[in-house]
C-alpha cells in the first residue's frame, strides 16, 4: 500500500508569477511521487478574497501543475478554520544549526531534525554555460525586521545587496539581478545600473515554472546575497534556488550563512563574507569554470530529492509508529 502525503504549500495559489516559490514545493512533490507516494497538493483559499479572483487563481495554478501531473491532486481548504490538523509529532528544519549547540537562537523547546532541501535532479539537468552570460539571481527586495536579544535584525534583501553595489566595478563578469520590484522597477533600475548591474523584473523571468528554469539554466552562474537574518544568526542555510543553479552545472557565489558540515566554501559553491571574498570567488569560478561546473552538479547530487525525501519519510513514519506502539505496550504491561 502506498503512502499518502498531503503537501501543504505556502500559498502558491496566491503567487501566480512566483514560480521560484512554486518550485520549492515541486521538488518535494516530485520526490514523493518518485518514491511511490500518493501526493495531494493542499492549498488554502481565503474566503474574504473575491470569488472570481480565487477561481482564476486556482485555474492558473492547475495549469502550472498540470505538466508535472499534479493538477488533479490539488485539494483546497478555507484559511478561516475549515481544517483541523493533528498535533505535530516531529519537526524538520533546513537550517543546519537549528536545535544544536551551535545555534545562536532558541529552539522553542522542540527537538529539530535537520534535512537538506531537495532538488529533483531529472528536472534540472546540467546545461553548458555561455562565457558571455551573466551571473544572475532571482530575489525579493523588501521584508520585515524583528528584535532579538536587544538587537534589530533586518530581513530585507536590498540591505544586503547594497553593501555590494560596487561589485561590478571590481570584476570582469556580468552581473544581473531579477528582482520583484513592480511599480518600483524604474526607481531601482536607475539606481543600480550606473554601478554596472543589469536589473530585470523578476515576474518577467519567473512567470511559469519553465521560464524560471530557463532563466537559471541560461545563466553563467549565480551571485546572490542572503537575508541579513541568516547571516547574523548563522543558521548555515542554503537557498533552494541556489540548488537549482548548482544542479544545472552553474557555479554559485553566495553569501556565507554560517559554518556548515556539508557546504563547501570554494568548490562549485563559493561562500563569501565580504567584498574581497566575493571578488576572489567570482575570479576563482571563472579561472576553472569547467571544473567548478562539474563540482556544482556533484554537490547538488548530495541534495537529490529522492534521497532527501526518503530520509524524511523514514524518520517521520518511524516516529509515528513508535508513538502508536507506546500505548499498546502500556496496555500489555498493565
Shape: globular
- The counted number of beta strands is 14
Rounded mean pLDDT is 93
What is the alpha-carbon Rg in Å? 21 Å
Number of domains: 2
Helical content (DSSP H or I, runs of 4+): 25-40%
Contiguous low-pLDDT stretches (5 residues minimum) are none
Strand neighbour order, sheet with most strands: 10-9-6-11-12-14-13
Tag the structure with descriptive keywords:
334 residues, alpha/beta, Rossmann fold, 2 domains, seven-stranded mixed beta sheet, three-stranded parallel beta sheet, 11 helices, 14 strands, 38% helix
Explain the overall architecture.
With 334 residues, this protein is an alpha/beta fold. It has two domains: 4-86, no CATH class; 121-301, Rossmann fold (3-Layer(aba) Sandwich), CATH 3.40.50.2000. It has eleven helices and 14 strands. The chain has a seven-stranded mixed β-sheet with strand order 10-9-6-11-12-14-13, sandwiched between helices. A three-stranded parallel β-sheet has the order 1-2-3. Helix 1 links the parallel strand 1 (4-8) and strand 2 (38-45). The protein is globular and about 60 Å long. The model has no long low-confidence stretch (mean pLDDT 93).
Fold topology:
Blueprint: E1 4-8, H1 19-34, E2 38-45, H2 51-66, E3 74-78, E4 91-93, E5 112-114, E6 135-139, E7 145-148, E8 151-154, H3 157-162, E9 175-179, H4 185-192, E10 198-201, H5 202-205, H6 209-217, E11 221-224, H7 228-233, H8 240-247, E12 252-255, E13 266-267, E14 269-272, H9 275-287, H10 289-301, H11 305-333
Parallel strand pairs: 1-2, 2-3, 4-5, 6-9, 6-11, 9-10, 11-12, 12-14
Antiparallel strand pairs: 7-8, 13-14
Helix pairs in contact: 1-6, 1-11, 8-10
